[in-house]
Amino acid sequence: MSIKIGIPSYLQSFTDNLETVEVTGSTVGECLGYLIKQFPGMEKKLLDKNGKLLDYVAVYLNGEDTYPEELSRLVQDGDELFILYIIGGG
Q1: Quick count: other Cβ atoms within 10 Å of Cβ 35?
Q2: DSSP assignment of 20-85, as one string?
Q3: Is 11 helix (H, G, I), strand (E, B) or coil?
Q4: pLDDT at 13 over 90
Q5: Apex 25 CA angle, 7 and 73, nearest 5
Q6: How far is CA 70 from CA 34, 55, 90, in A?
Q7: CA angle (83 as vertex; 55, 47 as ends), nearest 5
C-alpha cells in the first residue's frame, strides 16, 4: 500500500527537503510511524511523549481533517496525507 505524505515547508528540513514522502500503512498512525522511522527528527515535531499528536498538529486525509479519529483513521492505497500546524491566537 502506498500513501503520500505532503510535508509543509517548515518541516522539510527534517525530511532532507522533501516535499512529499511515500510511506506504507493501514492507518494514519502507522503512516506517521513509518515517516518517523525514515526521519527520526520528525517525532518530536509531531507526537507527544505518549505517542499522541501534539495539540497544534493536524493531519488531513485527502483534504479532510482526520479529527477526532486522527491516528486510528484508516487509509487506503493511493491516499494522501498532509501535516499542518494549527496556529492560534487572539
Answers
A1: 24
A2: EEEE--SBHHHHHHHHHHH-GGGHHHHB-TTSPBPTTEEEEETTEE-TTTGGG-B--TT-EEEEEE
A3: helix
A4: yes
A5: 80
A6: 16, 12, 26
A7: 40
What are residue 15's phi and psi, to 5 degrees? -120, 30
* Spatial distance between the Cα atoms of 40 and 11, rounded to a whole number of angstroms: 12
Confidence of residue 1 (pLDDT cuts 50, 70, 90): confident
Cell numbers describing residue 22 = 511515500
Of the CA atoms within 13 Å of residue 58, those in its CB half-sphere come to 14
